[in-house]
Amino acid sequence: MLTVDASGLKIGIVSPWLRGRYSTDLFEREFNTVVGQDLATILPDTFDIKRLLAGGQTTCRLPGSDRVLEASSSRITDSDDRTLGHTLIFRDITDSRQNARRAEVLSRVLRHNIRNRADVATAHLRQLTDSPTPDTADKIATTVEEELSALRDLGGTAREIESVLQADKRTGNRSVEELIRHAIEEVQHAEVVNDGHECAGGVSSVPVVIDTPPAETRANGEILIPVIRELVSNAVEHGGSAPEPHVSVRVKETSDTEGVDQWWIDVADSGAGISNHEVEVFEDAEEQPLQHGKGLGLWLVWWGVDRLGGEVSFDIDRGTTVTVELPGSLLSYE
């Protein structure tokens, strides 16, 4: 909270709530340099100052940040109802907006998939009234089972997304390689191999190469393991089944004298690649009414990485490489 004079220009008092990182983020300077300054030169250009001082509400995205503030004002008056100034109150609404957007995405994806898969299952069940041959009946039963299984998996992913978003961002140090191996073990048909080696599990196994430094991470495994598992699962599903390794999980980092600056996890395959449509959905970071992803797996990745303070990017030029960029503060060496 802060106050401005009757003209709505000069800043008077800044509350303790704004004296820490919020004042620095909002005004791009420490609070003690804000007092006495013109409000119009302090607030970001996206603020509607006239509307704000008239008693309305306005929102803005902070400069160089994903955080969104909502601002409201009230008049300070004397006994004759003359305006002496205004009190401005700022409220961080980033989390509430993100939660509302995520709920909307989940609702759309679930409705879209439930409707489509239920329609497919219903259409096949109706064929049973035509007294099909035993072979046809078996095919119908298999299709219905697959559709219902997909719906069950969709519900499981939705529950896991809820767990990921509620998990703490950081925990005690764990080996990065250990977390990656744990994630791959949860992927059906995936098998960790050394670079240049074939799978021991037979033709149905898909080889996955791991390349990671001997580092530890403070990122919560309850978030990072599902993220890596979904990416590897997608790579295994779309990367083909050639005998040579074609799916890889590689970790790289940049550092300086003060420690690790950034680190990345690349999950790559040499298959057909993720579709442009899917990439566009996630680059927009929200679903439009007529734009749906195929499921919730990559949304788990997107939101999980965001929860850890990172970003996700896609390279679909040759096969697919999904890069998870994470803060250097989450990585250290043993």
TrEMBL record:
<keyword id="KW-0808">Transferase</keyword>
<protein>
    <recommendedName>
        <fullName>histidine kinase</fullName>
        <ecNumber>2.7.13.3</ecNumber>
    </recommendedName>
</protein>
<dbReference type="GO" id="GO:0009378">
    <property type="term" value="F:four-way junction helicase activity"/>
</dbReference>
<dbReference type="GO" id="GO:0009379">
    <property type="term" value="C:Holliday junction helicase complex"/>
</dbReference>
<dbReference type="Pfam" id="PF02518">
    <property type="entry name" value="HATPase_c"/>
</dbReference>
<dbReference type="InterPro" id="IPR011114">
    <property type="entry name" value="RuvA_C"/>
</dbReference>
<feature type="domain" description="Histidine kinase">
    <location>
        <begin position="109"/>
        <end position="330"/>
    </location>
</feature>
<dbReference type="GO" id="GO:0004673">
    <property type="term" value="F:protein histidine kinase activity"/>
</dbReference>
<dbReference type="InterPro" id="IPR003594">
    <property type="entry name" value="HATPase_dom"/>
</dbReference>
<keyword id="KW-0547">Nucleotide-binding</keyword>
<keyword id="KW-0418">Kinase</keyword>
<dbReference type="InterPro" id="IPR036890">
    <property type="entry name" value="HATPase_C_sf"/>
</dbReference>
<dbReference type="GO" id="GO:0005524">
    <property type="term" value="F:ATP binding"/>
</dbReference>
<dbReference type="GO" id="GO:0006281">
    <property type="term" value="P:DNA repair"/>
</dbReference>
<keyword id="KW-0067">ATP-binding</keyword>
<dbReference type="InterPro" id="IPR005467">
    <property type="entry name" value="His_kinase_dom"/>
</dbReference>
<dbReference type="GO" id="GO:0006310">
    <property type="term" value="P:DNA recombination"/>
</dbReference>
<dbReference type="InterPro" id="IPR050980">
    <property type="entry name" value="2C_sensor_his_kinase"/>
</dbReference>
